[in-house]
Amino acid sequence: MGVWLRHRLPAVVDVAGMLTDERFVYDDLRPVRADDPYRPHTFVWFHRDLRDEVPVPGGLHVVHRDDRIVVVDKPPFLSTIPRGRHVQESVVVRMRTELDLPELSPLHRLDRVTSGLLMLATERRWRGPYQSLFERRAVTKTYRAVAPWRADLELPVTVRDHLRKVRGNWQAEVVPGAPVNAETLVEVETRLGETAIYRLSPRTGRTHQLRVHLHGLGIPIVGDPLYPDVLDVDVDDFSRPLQLLASEVAFTDPVDGTERRFVSRRRLPLVAED
Question: Which end of the chain has the least Cβ crowding within 10 Å, N or C?
Fold first, then answer.
């Protein structure tokens, strides 16, 4: 088995050392030995080494909790799920521990740099009913963003286009002439001198949809590290939050039929927190 692990894992992984430390285990938690014979269709488990993660500033507030769902109000820079260089500093890992809900899982996602409301299912059995709401576009989501003020921009306007996000590319792109798969209603709410707070009502949920649509209107969101240009920002730099807030969510509960509406306690413009 040791020979197979060395073949399958990148050269940077210390397979010999991990075998010695019994960090590879089978399903029954027995340690994998270097001289174990190769067995096809067998799962081998291990925990990868994690970097020392810098705590993400800002509170992670529980807006609502019942037996089926949890709604949290997340700060910018906190990942929804463990991913890449962010494991402990993710909503799921934090909340599973804090709320003692080992099966807690997100029903949708927010970009790491986006703030605001995120819904999670308390147990696996509730994922289906609530996730289907998002699949059927039966959830009304309202975002707010700070972006440049343009006197010549006629609002409200509904942006419709085809967005494509290619794996490996930082930015999503608009595909001219392709069938519409992304739609956002953009309204101005409050002018703040050279900037304004815009109310965004997406009918679809494509990757980076709101960020691309405001950039396309010539009003890229303040603090955006990807649009219009990809900036070289350290992953632990929390000094310039993206001014995009998932501020409201509303739906008819698929289990008991009640009308649900949740509102973020955060307000724009967002400021860097210690």
Answer: C
Tokens representing 111?
């970009």
Pair of tokens at residue 137: 């576009």
Q: What is the largest CA-CA distance in the chain?
A: 72
At CA 224, angle to CA 145 and CA 90, rounded to 5? 90
pLDDT tens per residue, range 131-146 = 999 999 999 999 999 9
Q: Is the pLDDT of residue 109 over 80?
A: yes
Domains of the chain, first to last:
1-49 (no CATH), 61-263 (3.30.2350.10)
Selection from 205, 212, 239 nearest residue 227 by Cα: 212
Of the residues 35, 52, 111, 161, only one is catalytic, namely: 111
Q: How many residues are listed for the chain in this entry? A: 274
Is there a contact between 198 and 187 (Cβ–Cβ < 8 Å)? yes
% of the chain surpassing 70 pLDDT? 96
Interatomic CA distance for residues 80 and 59, integer angstroms: 14
3-state secondary structure (DSSP) of residue 11: coil
Q: Are 181 and 207 in contact (CB under 8 A)?
A: no
Specify whether 111 is catalytic.
yes
Q: Where are the beta strands (DSSP E) in 138-274?
A: 140-148, 157-161, 163-164, 173-174, 182-192, 195-202, 244-252, 259-263
- Ramachandran angles phi, psi of 196, nearest 5°: -150, 160
Instruction: List the one residue out of 243, 268, 24, 259 whose CA is nearest residue 113.
Output: 243
